[in-house]
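Can't attach files on this board, so I'm pasting raw text. These are the components:
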Amino acid sequence: MAKVLILFAHPALEKSRVHAAMVKAVKGLPGVTFHDLYERYPDFDIDVKKEQEILLAHGIIIWQHPFYWYSAPALVKQWMDLVLEHNWAYGSAGRALAGKKIFNAISCGGGREAYSPAGKNRFTIPQLLFPFDQTAFLCRMQYLPPFVVFGTHRLQAPEIEGHAARYRSLVQALAAGGLEGQDWQGVGLMNDLPILQEVKSYS
Amino acid sequence: MDQHSFLFQAMIYLAAAVVMVPLAKRLGLGSVLGYLLAGILIGPSVFRFIGEEGEDIMHFAEFGVVMMLFIIGLELEPSRLWNLRKSILGLGGLQVILTATIIFGVALALGLRWQEAFVLGMILSLSSTAIVLQYLNEKGMLKTYAGQSSFSVLLFQDIAVIPMLALFPLLSGTAESAADPGNMVSGLPAWMQAAVIFLAIIAIMLSGRFLIRPLFRVVARTRLRELFTATALLIVVAIAVLMTAVGLSAALGTFLAGVVLANSEYKHEMESDIEPFKGLLLGLFFITVGASIDFDLVMRQPETILLLVAGLMFLKTGVLFLLGRFFSLDKGQNLWFALGLSQMGEFAFVLFSFTAEQQILSPSLTDTMVAVVAISMALTPLILLLNERLVQPRLVRREADAAPGMPDIGEQHEVIVAGFGHFGNTTGRFLRAHRVGMTVLDNNADRVELLRRMGFKVYYGDASRLDLLQAAGAARAKLIIIALEPASKRLEMIETIKKHFPNLRMLVRAANRYDAYDLMNAGMLHVYRESLDTSLRMGVDVMRFLGYRAYTAQRAARTFLKIDEANLKKLASIKDREEYIISARENIEELERMLQADAEQFRGAVDRGWDEESLMADAHKMNPS
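---
Top answer:
Structure tokens for the assembled complex are below.
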């Protein structure tokens, strides 16, 4: 059941460069379900039952989205509000998601140095992601470090390809169970994993 | 019974066609060969049902060629004709000049007088528009490289006939004696003739714009189908008369008229009206060609005739193939092109009788050549059949039809909207606001006129007809919006599309639930009930006036819509045809079933994520106060 579910949310994918490349890199990989939330629910009317079934069928979940206003696009919040039901995902009887792994794969305009106490965003990415972290915790899931593409506004095409390739390698490794024994303590971002350091491109 | 009575003759021709054409098609020979065989069978050589009068019938049947060129003109918008100019002038011009020159040289070498050689070269360089275009059309090859190149050459040849008719009298010793009686301008000086011809063409162009379109609008409003047909025929015949009167070929004149009317919203309607007449007349023409082959003559000098046929066809193929290579046609396409145009054409019959009158060619030479021409025409479908079955499969690469780079005949949109009434036009306006290109089919003359002024690509006609769909590009469109009325027409249209365009996605308007059942039973996946969303929007407003929060009301409506759609699918599948008489009582029963289903399904349809009941219960349980 180590299958990976990518919950992808982008309200205007046709205008995106980074996510378009990332989506292309992971769509169709074996053991990976790509679920495009804005494509499935353009009217925000989430099919709660269906979403819960999908969650149950996967062991690792990725929220992939741009980091709008230090959070996710609105549909991700709607999804959390409606799908993570009391006494299903959390609460005294809520055990449905217990033991699953979950993390964010995000893109942000600022550079890595901007997300530090000295930078203009003041907080680090993991700090800003605390609401997701805590949501996972309340649902008895293991929250993993995020995968982050920094400085998207200044990226050139080859750099974007590099990020997409590293994302692909990460998802492939997760789908193959390659990171089962990983000690996540001390890993700040997925980006810093040794297995991603050598990846430059794919084809 | 009088063998020569009109009805008896008609019966013979029709019977021959009805027997032979399906047989030929069944054997994979194509309709042209079928007609030719039918002609040979009923002609003087076999059953002798028709004799000399066949020639008169042939002249009459040549009008089929005129109609065909009119229809081809309709398909060719002026801008596209302009795009073809290089292949028309280059390919067509070189073909006529080269072929004529070589034949001229050979004929001189064989000891003919130079006048004879010149005339023969000119006449024999022409190919048969009727056979080639009919064949390519039947094979759906008109838009391929080979098809477009063939068309260009044939068009140039049709134009080239005009100077030939003007030149030949100068070659005869008898001076300009034989002026065509139907030609009013031949007595005038040359510059006057040119002016008259020019004026005639201008007249056709102007009337295409300012006379014919308003005329069609008036006729369309009468909603009498046969009047429309009569009008279309009248236009073609009138133009033919005008053109012959000023000394142009009727075919060329109607072709021009067709091009002028190509932008007209009535073009598909005209096409489908003329089409059956064209088909019948062309068939008749092929039959008369078959019947005109004088087998007695052939049997008297079989070697000569055979040698002439083979030699001429080989020569023409050679020239065409070289030109094809020069104009960078791919080998497979080039073979289609070169072999397709290898025969001599129907203009040869006209020109031979003309030159015989002018005493340029001797009667015996004329008879021999007429037989050669007819045989070469009869052989063409056979040669093309061999090419298709034996040669083409060996040429490895099968290139895509209508390859890029070649100007395409007919603009293509991904979306077709059938019916631009109050339903279709909302969808259409929405799409247009987002610059989605679409082809509109509508049968309201006033609306068509308006849309056209607004720059829509719109055609007048009954959208459920196969030919109109074909003309609108249904074979290459991505999807079609079926929004026309009444409901029965929509079902008719769906059947046509399922049969002929299985890959075209259909989005269908439904008047109500019952209409939707019909559509779903017809296999439709995308069905849109007219009043559903609107009634629900009204329901939402009612809830808001009663004090519900806007978002709650809206979500409730959307949930309702989804459940209702799901129920519709379920109910459509239980309903079968027999119990399908919708009485008032059944309507009520259906409503009851729906109301019950609503009551059951909505109990579970609250958004529990936004509901705090269970949370509060949990909190009390853990921390009872």
